[in-house]
Every structure is written in structure tokens, then in C-alpha cells.
Fold this sequence. Notes:
The structure is a single chain. The chain is an alpha/beta fold. It folds into two domains: 2-206, Class I glutamine amidotransferase (GATase) domain (Rossmann fold, 3-Layer(aba) Sandwich); 218-325, Arc Repressor Mutant, subunit A, CATH 1.10.10. Helix content is 46%, strand content 12%. It is built from 15 helices and eleven strands. The chain has helices at residues 15-34, 87-91, 95-104, 116-121, 137-143, 170-182, 184-193, 218-229, 237-243, 248-259, 263-281, 286-292, 298-309, 313-320, 322-325; strands spanning 2-8, 41-47, 52-53, 60-61, 65-66, 75-78, 108-111, 129-130, 148-149, 155-158, 161-164. The chain has a seven-stranded mixed sheet, sandwiched between helices. Strands 3-4 form a two-stranded antiparallel sheet. α1 (15-34) crosses α7 (184-193). The longest helix is centred in the first third of the chain and has 20 residues, at 15-34.
Amino acid sequence: MKHVSILIPEGHTSLVNIAGTHQILNQVNGIAAQFGRDPVFEVVLVGLAREARQDTGLFTVTPDCLIGDITRTDLIIVPAIHTRWPDALERNLELVPWIKDQYHNGAEVASLCVGAYLLAATGLLAGKACSTHWAHAADFRNTFPDVQLLDDRIMTAEDGIYTSGGAYAYLNLLVYLIEKNAGRDVAIVASKLFMIDPDRDRQSPFMIFEGQKDHGDERVRQAQELIEENYTKKITVASLASELALSRRSLERRFKKATANTVVEYIQRVKVEAAKSQLETTPKNINEVMYEVGYLDSKSFRTIFKKVTGLSPVMYRKKYSRELAMA
Length: 327
């Protein structure tokens, strides 16, 4: 039986992550029993204090035990911590060496949503793939530049370290962990019981691209504004570089460093974000939307749209159109 330690950090944490994980993993034991198998998980809440009162003042979580009581565990769950970083780290600093020690003693570690910040603070994510909430991608990259952030992924798994994307993406990571430890048949029953779509692998359709402008490079910020103001037109890297009195090479280097996107990627994402808005709120057909955001070739538009969002324009409209939802 796998010993699972769900951490109860100090501050404002995701009670959904904590309670949801606790409920689902315990339910797995019931599903396993239906298959005539032994319990799979022993789940405990592990904290720094006997009571963890949420900063909101609304709830208090009572851990089953403290980190000092756990000599060895098999799986650590790090829930999302909504307290601002680095205040969250200061209040939960004792968890960092404990997580590292447990990992080096054989435990696996899974972070949920922005729980990735605390996991990254241990150094265990250095050089590894990681996911977190897409809205925190730019800040996470700035805070932990040695981590390979894949902000479009629902989850990552590498060397016994797991991370999930934003909010309820943690459910997909749980299904993955259930399959890994209890078998696919149990995971399928769990996914049906809790109505979790196990086939989602990307959070791209949910992402809202707002650009990354808190980088301090004024020329790059000007380039971003030029792109956003002129996305309906044909924009080239050369024309942007000329407008800003920079060499093309210098612009591309500085742009990538500041935004984590190439200039071409940024142009594409701005155009696609405009197209998403049109598909969500207007009855215009796909070609009309394509022309309005500055594309002339339908195949190119559809390819880029799917690359950015994970869905074709038609499927995106079916999923998010206000007009269709009210039909």
C-alpha cells in the first residue's frame, strides 16, 4: 500500500486540491475492493502545525500529523498555495528540506497547479519539465529560469516528479497516478465515477494570451505594442526591427529573452487570440474571421490556430461560442 502525504501548507491553500485528492484516492481503495484487491493508498494530511487556519479566515484544516512524524512516505502531494510568492516560501520554508529528503529517500512528489512554486524551490525541478497554471507562466519562468516550463501541458512526469497545470487539471494528474499505482481498470472506473476526462493532455484551449510586458526591455515592449496594434496587417520581423532601429538579430534575441516567445510566435498568438474572441462572440464564418486577423491562406490559419489552441477553429467555436451556447 502506498503511503500518500498530502501537504497542508501555511497561508491560503487550495482546499479543492486537498479535499479532492483525499476523497478520490480514498475512493480508489473502495474501487480496488470491488475488484477483489487490497487497498492501494494510505492517505494522510501532513502539516507544519496542529491546525492550519486559512488566511481567508473561512476554514481551518487539521492535519493528521506533522512532518516530523513522517519518517518515510511514498508520494507527496503539494497543493496550490495562493499566498503571494515569496511570502508563501517564507511561511513554508520547513517543507523544502523535508520534501527533498523524502524524495532522495525514494518518495515521489506531485505538485498541483501553482504548488509548482514550492516544488521548484526545492531544486528538484531544475532542468526538468514542469507545468503550472498558464496565467502564472511568465512569473514562474522569471522566478525559476532553470526549470523547463511547458505551460500548455495538463501534466508532466519525469523521474518520479509530477506536475499539473491550472486549477482542475490536477484531476488528470490524479487519474494518471491512479493508473500507475492501481492499474488502468481502476483508473477508468475512477474517471467515470468522478466524471474526469482522462484524455485531456493540454490546457491550451483554456489559455488567454495577454503578452508578457513586465520584463523591463522598452524596445521589446514597443515591438509588442506595434504587433498588437497592427495584427490585422502583414507584420514581418524585418519591418519591426527597422521601425525600432534594431538589427533583426538583436530584436529576435531580446524578444525571446523578454517574452519566452519568438517574434513570429508572438505575432501568431496575438492573431489567434483575436480570432478566438471573434469565434466566441460573433456569427462570422471561419474565413471572415481569418481575413479579419490578417491571414489569407486558410490552411495556414487552421494549422497555426490548432498549434496554439490545440483545437481547430470549428471545434473551438463549438466549444466556446456564446451564440451556440444560447441556441
